[in-house]
Amino acid sequence: xxxxxxxxxxxxxxxxxxxxxxxxxxxxxxxxxxxxxxxxxxxxxxxxxxxxxxxxxxxxxxxxxxxxxxxxxxxxxxxxxxxxxxxxxxxxxxxxxxxxxxxxxxxxxxxxxxxxxxxxxxxxxxxxxxxxxxxxxxxxxxxxxxxxxxxxxxxxxxxxxxxxxxxxxxxxxxxxxxxxxxxxxxxxxxxxxxxxxxxxxxxxxxxxxxxxxxxxxxxxxxxxxxxxxxxxxxxxxxxxxxxxxxxxxxxxxxxxxxxxx
Length: 261
Known about the structure:
This protein has about 260 residues and is α/β, with parallel strands linked by helices.
């Protein structure tokens, strides 16, 4: 039995509620055109696309005719009127016949599903062509410089994101995985989007837009603030990572998993 929750998925462990994550989330998590292009390329021109875990509709410009699926009532209410109305359903039980869509996508969503394997098998069942998953490789999450300042945050991220091998086994067929370059001025405010702009993560609104920060306590946040502030003032951060301030892109844990039958 699937238990619906207000955080946008079926009941499970390791998810943060969408509502409390941050009132400024919409301004901090704006789709980045270059990431959208990578998604569009992975979809390969699919005309009809199901978007599972659609939320408020980020990146739906990456495909043509979108059928969004979103189980959270609060997230469905946030969708702009110009976008298609979202179907109330969970990934693990999609209300569509076999091979309904040319393509499928799920973006920053699989780590919130109660059963990743069941959900991805459902995506494969209802899709004739490519299934595209934008996610993070948990084996790479801790390689980011943030781990030295807020290990609790990236430990939470690494625990939440399913292993790529698990996803590949569930999807079957031919599965390709590639890292997505993150632009220096990325507009989508997940943690690695600030790889060369560390000062941004001292803004509580920027942190609140990334759900992993909701899993740590106030003491950990205060330690992070204090340590990063001290290192920026002393120049210690720039001595270790200053080259990132001018790097055009960064390849971190952000990946696209693309599966074809």
